[in-house]
Specification:
globular, alpha/beta, 538 residues, single chain, FAD/NAD(P)-binding domain, binds NADP nicotinamide-adenine-dinucleotide phosphate
């Protein structure tokens, strides 16, 4: 059996930095990665049009000033291939690959309290043992697998955006269907439309999409960012870990004159990116204010799409803007003006089955296609964890502990699961922030905690139940007045029995979260229970 201090699961943004930091701290570390190379979501989501929706100057590592100066992003929003090149560059620069076992999937983990270690088994049956298990498995990595009736009979080709093949997928000259219109679908549709002979877009729920305003990255913007002193600290002090492309903080709707409101709406639309989420400070809290922004964007959709009936179907009416993740695009709505693109509204007439030659709706309509692209989303937050059989001393899984919604301390650890870190988990700002920085923040906190354990001669660490309850209450309180709590989306956990709703990420912002983490660390990691060789303390 091979013994390690830390086993990291995943070699994406979080896993790569975890290796670098923990190794620097003198720990023996290995990462298990089921893919054949580094990159995580940027390895798997190589679909046409895949691109980050946080500015590249922010969505990258901040821990090494040398790295920051060595890498020159080409565009405001890097495309998937550039992001993957970057993560490969990082892996090579810091010589991380020798700590990664590729094509290796962690199948199970058992906590052995007598040894204060996890016993791990890989998919090939290999046994490993570690003191700390760090899940860098991502929140949006376990894809919803298409389970449409008849799929096995399809004689064409089908692919998933979330697991796009490395080989060339033929689009030219083919009739193509894309099913799903979230961020992935919107990007794929826009990129596939000019290449396909015919594209059918199967939409169940329209989402708001706004122009990314992607552009080449100017030398001035690049130089200003990389030469900024204390850039990392500055980003950690912002609400979402990002500064580029963000407007100055907005005021409440009532504080603007009628003319200023109209000006602001236009200016934010022109700015693009996340600007439409920040037209008025209270648009995420007040339905009437939100309705103004929502209607403004619907009007833009009606201007952009020539066929009024198609435009109306593309207009979201069932949710306020920003209560589901805003999509960023580069010409999405204009795509529907193309002769070779047709919108298929499956809201009231769902897909009945996949036939050998295409897709059939319940109402009988048939669409003949040679390629189907599924962009169906993910089992968010717990999906990747559920694929690993992780058990604590009592035989319980994390999912058991989170049955009525996640309960964590700082999104990083769950009471009852000693020495197990789930990076960027629910209860942290997570997917609401720049995930590159969020991962760094969580890895650093966990590494500092491990270093502190050495100093106090502790073997085990886990959240104190009371502290976890307090933090979970704080996460609930922070989201309690938000409109998005009451809209179904992958960030909301709904309890089937009583309909109670839990907003999973922490909505208090990265700055407040980071300050809380630092205060806890400065107070001897108050709220965590240390056990083992050293004196039990909390
Ligand atoms: P998603 O937002 O969950 O969208 C999944 C889509 O599939 C929805 O439109 C959904 O419709 C549809 N769908 C599911 N089952 C269906 C069925 N049986 N019939 C018809 N339609 C069906 O997933 P995603 O697009 O992969 O995006 C997830 C998240 O990943 C994003 O919000 C973002 O956080 C991240 N992401 C980021 C980027 C980026 O940085 N640019 C790109 C891609 C993804 P309903 O809404 O009706 O369920």
């Amino acid at each position: 059996m091979t013994m390690f201090d830390v086993v990291v699961v995943g070699a994406g943004f979080g896993g790569l930095y975890a290796i670098e930091r923990l190794r620097r701290d003198g720990l023996s570390v290995v990462a298990l990665e089921s893919a054949s190379d580094v990159g995580g979501v940027w390895f798997h989501n190589r679909y046409p049009g895949a691109r980050v929706d946080i500015e590249s100057l922010d969505y990258c590592y901040q821990f090494s000033s040398e790295l920051t100066h060595e890498w020159r992003w080409s565009e405001r929003y890097a495309a998937q291939d550039e992001l993957l090149r970057y993560l490969n560059f990082v892996a090579d620069k810091f010589e991380l690959r020798r700590h990664i076992r590729f094509n290796t999937t962690l199948a199970g983990a058992r906590w052995r309290p007598d040894q204060a270690r996890y016993a791990l088994t890989t998919h090939t049956g290999e046994a490993l043992s570690c003191r700390f298990l760090m899940l860098a498995t991502g929140n949006l990595s376990a894809a919803r697998i298409p389970n449409f009736a008849g799929l096995a009979s399809f004689e064409g080709e089908w692919v998933q955006t979330s697991d796009w093949p490395e080989r060339d997928v033929q689009i030219e000259g083919r009739r193509v269907a894309v099913i799903g219109t979230g961020s992935s679908g919107v990007q794929a549709i826009t990129a596939i439309a000019p290449r396909a002979q015919q594209l059918y877009v199967f939409q169940r729920t329209p989402n708001f999409s706004v122009p990314a305003r992607n552009a080449p990255l100017s030398d001035e913007a690049y130089a200003a960012a990389v030469n900024m002193p204390d850039r990392r600290e500055m980003l950690l002090g912002t609400p979402v870990g990002s500064v580029f492309g963000l407007p100055a903080p907005a005021l409440n709707y009532a504080e603007y004159s009628e003319a200023a409101r109209a000006e602001r709406l236009q200016a934010q639309w022109a700015l693009g990116g996340q600007g439409m989420n920040r037209v008025f400070a209270d648009q995420g809290l007040d339905l009437a204010v939100n309705a103004v922004v929502s209607e403004f964007v619907r009007e833009k959709i009606r201007e952009l799409v020539k066929d009024p009936a198609v435009a109306e179907q593309l207009c979201p009416q069932d949710h306020p803007i920003g209560t589901r993740r805003l999509c960023l695009d580069t010409g999405y709505y204009e795509t529907f003006n193309r002769d070779n693109v047709a919108l298929v509204n499956v809201a009231g007439d769902p897909i009945e089955e996949i036939t050998p030659t295409g897709i059939q709706l319940r109402g009988g309509a048939k669409y003949e296609v040679e390629l189907i692209v599924f962009a169906l989303g993910f089992h968010a937050f717990r999906g990747a964890m559920d694929r690993i059989d992780i058990r604590n001393a009592a035989g319980a899984s994390i999912s058991d502990a989170w049955r009525r919604g996640p309960r964590t301390l700082l999104g990083l650890m769950t009471a009852g699961f000693p020495n197990l870190f789930h990076l960027t988990g629910p209860g942290s700002p997570s997917v609401l922030t720049n995930m590159a920085l969020m991962n760094e923040q969580h890895v650093d906190f966990a590494a500092d905690l491990i270093a502190y354990m050495r100093a106090v001669d502790a073997e085990t660490i886990e959240p104190e139940l009371a502290a976890q309850d307090v933090w979970t209450d704080e996460v609930t309180r922070a989201a309690s007045t938000l409109l998005r709590l009451n809209v179904d989306n992958y960030m909301v956990h709904v309890n089937a029995d009583d309909g109670s709703r839990v907003f999973m990420p922490y909505t208090g912002g990265l700055a407040r979260f980071n300050a809380t983490c630092r205060a806890i660390a400065a107070d001897g990691f108050k709220g965590f229970v240390f056990g083992g060789k050293g004196e039990m303390r909390s």
